[in-house]
């Protein structure tokens, strides 16, 4: 590894895939630190907490040693540093407002359904399964709303590719999963299909999802 590399702490198939795909899209060298088991007490969790006291992934260490967390913040930083990657519309682009709105919407609305739905026993002591099931159903309503925001273009923002498409390409692999999207959200499913078919990102999807192309 050179001193100029990014260092990404994550787990295959988890939320770190978002940052991994963005780094590949930017064409920058990075090292992937697999901290599988970070959500249980042990060495991997301690490695992660030393950088991110919340113990969350993705955690990205920049080439200068600065620690970045929160996938949306990382997306915006990478978009600023590597504008040719097309992760975000420039400030004067007509799609900029929609990009910012939907990026924050994804992390503020959809992401918490995983936080509370994947491990409901952490948050309630009675009928945790009911909370998990409710989160999946709520997530479906959120995706159905996003479907109504898409036009006829190939990407979330129409003709302009962005980090939003990377989010969709990754998140269709998580519950309610790709078959549900194909049936209920055909526009989002089509966006995901195009992202998953991008040659430069194909290795990322294969490393993270067994059902990827």
TrEMBL record:
Coiled coil: none annotated. Residues 3-86 form the GST N-terminal domain. Pfam families: GST_C_2, GST_N_2. It comes from the Bacteria. CDD domains: GST_N_Beta. Residues 92-213 form the GST C-terminal domain. PANTHER family: GLUTATHIONE S-TRANSFERASE GSTA (PTHR44051:SF8), GLUTATHIONE S-TRANSFERASE-RELATED (PTHR44051). This is Glutathione S-transferase family protein. It comes from Azospirillum aestuarii. The lineage of its organism: Bacteria, Pseudomonadati, Pseudomonadota, Alphaproteobacteria, Rhodospirillales.
């Amino acid at each position: 590894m050179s001193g100029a590399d990014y260092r990404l702490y994550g787990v295959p198939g988890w939320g770190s895939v978002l940052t991994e795909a963005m780094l590949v899209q930017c064409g920058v060298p990075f090292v992937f630190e697999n901290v599988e088991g970070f959500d249980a007490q042990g060495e991997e969790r301690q490695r992660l907490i030393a950088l991110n006291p919340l113990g969350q992934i993705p955690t990205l260490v920049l080439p200068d040693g600065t620690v970045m967390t929160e996938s949306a913040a990382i997306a915006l930083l990478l978009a600023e540093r590597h504008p040719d990657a097309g992760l975000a519309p420039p400030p004067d682009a007509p799609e900029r407002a929609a990009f910012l709105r939907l990026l924050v919407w994804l992390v503020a609305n959809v992401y918490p359904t995983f936080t509370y739905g994947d491990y409901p026993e952490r948050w309630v002591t009675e009928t945790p399964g009911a909370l998990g099931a409710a989160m999946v159903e709520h997530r479906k309503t959120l995706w159905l709303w996003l479907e109504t925001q898409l036009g006829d273009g190939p990407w979330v923002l129409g003709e302009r590719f962005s980090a939003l498409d990377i989010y969709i390409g990754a998140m269709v692999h998580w519950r309610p999963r790709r078959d549900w999207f194909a049936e209920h959200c055909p526009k989002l499913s089509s966006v995901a299909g195009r992202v998953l078919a991008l040659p430069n990102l194909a290795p990322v999807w294969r490393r993270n999802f067994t059902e990827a192309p």
